[in-house]
Write a structure and sequence with these properties.
The protein is of the alpha/beta class. The chain is built from 11 helices and 14 strands. It is 40% helix and 17% strand. Strand 1, helix 1 and strand 2 form a beta-alpha-beta unit. The chain is globular.
Amino acid sequence: MKVLLTGGAGYIGSHTCVELLNNGYEVVIADNFDNASEKVIDRIKQITGKTVDVYKIDVADKEALRELFSQCDIEAVIHFAGYKAVGESVAKPTMYYRNNLDTTLTLLEVMSEFNVKKIVFSSSATVYGVPKVVPLKEGMPTSCTNPYGWTKLFNEQILTDATVADKELSVVLLRYFNPIGAHKSGLIGESPNGVPNNLMPYITQVAVGKREKLGVFGDDYDTPDGTGVRDYIHVVDLANGHLKALEYINNGHKGTEIFNLGTGTGYSVLDIVKTFSKVNDLEIPYAIMERRAGDVAIVTADPEKANKQLNWTANFGLDDMCRDSWNWQKNNPNGYD
């Protein structure tokens, strides 16, 4: 089966590419490399011993995307392409809405032209907004607190409406929680541009000497140690969730289905810091700072639906996530640069 990965050179896309290749799929990547490195492609080949066809295009460019589909016999799509920084989305909302919605609309139009009826979409737990109850279940109300989250929710609605209009279309929406970790080879991992927005790459950059210390935003939440609790998932477990989603579609699913991809276990910021220090024998200096606006105390997933219907479960624990994150960073102190 030949699968198109839009944004396939990114953090989650590259790990999903590896898992697909290792499980017998053919892969085509479409990526403009605005937020990814072309070196990823060689790293994927090193890991798997297999090659992928790569198209350096903007997925919102309809003619370029048509050319890709005309040259490749695409049977399914996993759609990762999109801007992904919450803070940047607040500062540049128009850019986020234009890019993140245009890529999906263009992709759906070209898929329809070429009679491709299977798509897995990279969504986010941000669509749950500020949760009143945890753990989060797929049927809970949705809302968002920033433009990035709204683009995910609007895309979910666009894809859902498309399945209403086309009864042959199969859509799986995967709501990610907090992916961390890296491939065990240390060849691919998270390589953010500029100052990291997420906890683990900030920790690893402190560990490698690029940052002086970690800022911990708030220690007075109603949690065991006062710091925010999140559901962290190993990126390889997340990648395997996409394989299970493809299998689900290939088994005859039609319409739209939503799945949380998380472990169901919450860890605090200090849990992550202490575990990282323990498994890697490294001290991570940190300072307590004021809370960030919009942060909540606890966000965790209920992954039961994915466990049952996708036959998917997370296999890696927090020790693995911390160990693999450091293995990537110490071998690539400047990311792919």
